[in-house]
Every structure is written in C-alpha cells, then in structure tokens.
Specification:
Elements: H1 4-7, H2 19-35, H3 42-51, H4 57-72, E1 78-79, E2 85-91, E3 100-109, E4 113-114, E5 118-120, E6 125-130, E7 136-139, E8 142-144, E9 147-149, E10 155-157, E11 160-162, E12 164-173
Antiparallel strand pairs: 1-2, 2-3, 3-12, 4-11, 5-10, 6-9, 6-12, 7-8, 7-11
The protein binds fe (ii) ion.
Length: 191
C-alpha cells in the first residue's frame, strides 16, 4: 500500500469505469515519450510554454479531456477543502507511463487561495487548464494562465490560484511528492 506522503493520499482512478479517461491517459503517454529526456525546471517551463502552449495539439487535447472529465466525474474527485479544492490521482507511475504519475487538482478562487504546502523531490510538469479565462496558477517563476509551469527538483511551495477556477494537471517523475516540506526551508539553487 502506497503511503499518503508518496502518493498524495489518493487511490488512482479505476480507468475501466471511464473510457474518456483511458483515451486521455493514452494521450499523456504520447506526450511523456516526447519529454522523457527533459528535466523539470525553469528551462523546461520556458520550452513547454514556447512549444506546447496554446494551439499545440497536446495542450488543446489535455484541456478538452480535463473539461470533459470534470463533467464525467473522473477529474479531481476528492475534496480537500470543500468543492473549491479537490484532487485526484489518475494513474500511479507505471512502466507504460515511463514511471510518471498523472494527478489533477481543481482550485477555484477569485482572491489568492493556497492549498497544501508540498515539495517535488524530482520536480513537476504542470499543465494549467483554465476554466475561467482570468484564472492563474502560481509557479516558481510567477503567475501562469494558459500554459505550463515546471518547478525543478527539490522545490517546494503552496499551490496557489487566483482569478477563478482552473485545473492543475500535473505529472510527477516517479510519482514523487512530499507533504513534509515547510515554508521557509531553503529552495534548491535552481528552481
Ligand atoms: Fe507543486
């Protein structure tokens, strides 16, 4: 049994129940094969926003699947702070995913809202799926609307939203995430 610390407290989705989620996961696997040699961090964030941003087929597909998944009930199923802050793990790391996990977090707030402080031991690739055009997610480089953030290995932060509702669709190498981190701890040299 996976510990809550390692696997974000969420049992992976039962994909057999959700055909659209199966299609979505297959599309994620294609994306993972494109980025498998890259390391999360500022440079990857820049590259993702340049090459995989608005208008890119992966980005547009991910946004479409996540919006469909919200309607079908397989995105961000578990409430952490009522309906405005929800999380759900879609898949655990596995060979087919190149040992990258897929998780969705729904956050909704006009004013800045903070979720659970956490660290990404191996970094994070985070696709921002806007549900409101003004919604933004805070990354290590600042507020991000449509597009991507990619905190580097060892970084830690509050997930923060403002300006409405969004889904943070995030990919974690080896599924690694830690809720042990504390605000004020030193950040790695590169974030
Ligand atoms: Fe994060």
């Amino acid at each position: 049994m996976a510990s809550t610390d390692t696997y974000a407290g969420a049992q992976p989705l039962n994909l057999a129940e959700y055909p659209t989620a199966q299609e979505f996961v297959a599309r994620c696997y294609e994306f993972f094969r494109e980025v498998k040699h890259l390391t999360p961090g500022k440079d990857l964030e820049t590259r993702l926003n340049r090459d995989y941003g608005l208008g890119n087929e992966y980005y547009e597909d991910f946004c479409r699947y996540i919006k469909q998944g919200l309607k079908e009930g397989w995105v961000a199923k578990d409430e952490l702070d009522g309906p405005k802050y929800r999380r759900g793990r879609i898949i655990a790391p596995c060979e087919e995913s190149l040992f990258i996990s897929i998780t969705t977090v729904y956050m909704e707030s006009q004013d800045i809202y903070r979720g659970q402080y956490h660290k990404h031991p191996y970094g994070e690739i985070n696709c921002v799926v806007q549900l409101d055009d003004s919604a933004e997610l805070m990354g290590m480089q600042g507020w991000q609307g449509k597009g991507w953030t990619s905190p580097g290995p060892g970084t830690h932060h509050y997930p923060e939203v403002r300006g409405g509702a969004l889904v943070a669709l995030f990919f974690l190498p080896a599924g690694r995430i830690s809720y042990d981190a504390k605000p004020g701890e030193a950040q790695p040299i590169a974030v």
